[in-house]
Amino acid sequence: MKNPIRALLERDERRWQTQGVKDWERRRAEGKLTFVLKLGFLWGLIMIAAFTLIEYFLDGRIRVETLWSRVLMFLSLGFVLGLVFWRKGEEKYQKHLREQSEKNNRTILPPMTRL
Fold first, then answer.
1. CB-based contacts of 69: which residues, under 8 Å, 6+ apart?
2. Which of 10, 25, 57, 86 is the most buried (most CB within 10 A)?
3. Residue ranges of the domains in the chain?
4. pTM of the full predicted structure?
């Protein structure tokens, strides 16, 4: 029986080979700043909304001071998260390019002969 974690990683790698490279090339074309801003705002806004709803359901009100601290904290963390995801995506993409280059440049050399 195959290790389920290994199977998941292999599936992820196959997905990267087929669709992930195209997706990343599209994101790269938009630029790092756009990627980081989009991800940072999206993640930050989702977290702000979630924690604000939790506060409302637990306390029955929303305190402005905690809302502003959430905005600052989650948007900042979102931008850091965007930078981390950009770096990881670039590392994976560059690794893919190196592997493709090596695969395309391989030649079969004849066995060495003694002189």
1. none
2. 86
3. 30-97
4. 0.73
